[in-house]
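Troubleshooting log. The previous structure file for this entry was overwritten by mistake, so regenerating from the original sequence record. Sequence copied from the archived sheet and checked twice against the printout by T.R.
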Amino acid sequence: MDEEPNNRETEIGRRRFLALMTAGLAMVQESPAATTTKSHLVDVGPANLYTNDGIYDKFRDLGFFLVRANGKLVALSCYCTHRICKVTAQANHTFLCNCHGSKFTEEGKVTEGPAKRDLPILPMSAAGNGHLVVDLSAK
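Regenerated output below.
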């Protein structure tokens, strides 16, 4: 007759496995790369709130900046194209990635690596109520 496996060892292994899987899933859900393909629109208000040239960082926690420069208003992703760290707006109207030192112009162009790609421009459109809407599904 075969001996039954030691259930205590199996149970501990299972618990540990489930704990690791839960932690791993939580990390994936927090990752900007884990966004769904479902459209996620953010109402940023009317365009007249952003008439002055500069970087508007109030939406950084949602994953983007609004930037008015050279007569254009754009929504720039706040995620560095090197390792997906959030960049920060600098006083000189540039962006810096504190993780690895990449630098970007206010238009999102790379000026210093290791990043090789510019910050993505996110689609923005006017809603029926006159507000601007940024589409985060393109992040």
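The mean pLDDT is 79. Archived copy saved in two places this time.
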